[in-house]
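Quick one, T. Sequence first:
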Amino acid sequence: MKNLYLTNRFFILFGSIVGLFVLSFPVPFLLPLVQTVFVMGIIIVVVDVLLLFNKATKVRVRRHLPRVFSMGDENKVSLNFKNLSTIKLKLSIIDELPFQFQKRDFEEQLSLEPEQEIEIHYQLKPTERGVYKFGAINVFMQSFLGFVNRRYRHEFEMEVPVYPSIIQMKQYELRAFDRITHQGGIKKIRRLGHSYEFEQIKNYVRGDDYRSVNWKASSRRAQLMVNQYQDERAQQVYCVIDKSRVMKMPFEGLSLMDYAINTTLVISNIALQKHDRAGLLTFSDKIGTTIKADKKVNQLNKILMALYKEKERNLEANYELLFHASRKLVKGRSLFLLFTNFESMYALERVLPILRRINNLHLLVVVFFENTEVKAYTEETVTNTEGIYHQTIAQQYLAEKVAMVQKLKQYGIQAVLTAPDELSVNTINKYLELKARGLI
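C-alpha cells:
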C-alpha cells in the first residue's frame, strides 16, 4: 500500500459523494441514487487499482549521463522510458538529483501508448567541482481512469564527477584555431617580423631578407649565405592561480577561482596546441599544486586532474612565497598568467614590488576582475540624491580598477581587467597578442 497514491480526481469524486449524502438528509429521495453512485465509485477505484498493480503493468526506465560534467555549463541528462504493459499510461517522473543542485521541484510529465518508447532530456548546470550522486527515479503511473497512482521506484544510483569546463575548452580551441570564420571574442592578430630561433644556414636566393646574411659563412664559402629562422616554439606558459579569500567572490553561481580554473584548462589546451609547454602553479598562504611546464601527451590530463582537486582557502595570499617559487621551481624565462583580484589600489600597491620582481624574471600578465554588478548599478537611472551619491561611489570604484591597470603598465607589467564571464576570451586574446609580438 505504500506505493498507492490517491489523485485529485479521487478526492473530487468522493468529496462530491459526501456532499450528496449530506444533501440527502433534507431530500430523502436522493439517498438511493447517492448510494448507487458511491458503490459505482468504489468499483471504479478497485478496477483502477487492479489495472495498475497487475504484474503485466510495468515500465522500463533508464538514465543516461555523460562520462563527466563540465562546471559552469549546461550538461544534458537523458531519461528513457518504455511502456511494457498493454494499457496507455500517464507518467509523472521525479528524478532524485544530486543535493548540490538544491532542486526540489523537478518533475516531468508524459503519456505512453502500449509498447511505446520515449526519451526525454533536461539540462543541469553544476557550479561546484566534485562527485555528484544521482538517486532513484520515481515514476508515478496512472491509467486512463486516473483515480489512483502507482509509484514505481527504480533504484538507479549513479555518480558523475564535475570537472573544470571541458566543453569550454573544446569551444575555445575551435575558435582560436579557426582560420576561416571569425567567431565572436577571439581576435586574429597579424604576426609582425619573425622570431629569432635559429634553424640553419642556407644559400642566398633572390627574395631572401638581406638583413639575415651571414657574412662569416659567406666569406668561408665565397658566396652569399643567409641564416634561416623558424617560429619559436616550446615556450613555457604557466597559469598561476591565487586560491586566497579574494577569489571566493561569487558571480552567477561560480566563484572567481572557478572562472580562473575553467580558463586555465582552456589556455593550457591552446598553449599545447600551439606547441608551447603548459604548466600550473597555485598558491595562497602556501604553495599548492606545482606542475612543471611540459608538452607531453598526458600533460593536459595532469593539469585537469590537479584543477579538479583545488579548493579556495580563507587566508591572505603570500606573494613573497610566489616569488621564491618562481625562482626555484621555474627554470628559464616563462609566461606567467596570474589569476588574482584586487579590490583597491592599496591592495595592489602592497604586492606591487613583488610583482615587479617576478616580472624581471618572467613575462608576467596579471589578470584580475571587474565587478559586473557594480558596473550594472552605475548604468541604472536614479532620481534621488542618495542614488546619485551611491552611483558616484560606484563609478569611483570602477575608475580605480582602470587606474590599477595603468599602474601595472607603468612598471612594464602586462594586465588584463575583465568581466568574469569574458575571462577565457580576454586571456586567449592576450596570449595570442604576446605570441604575435614575439614577447614569448
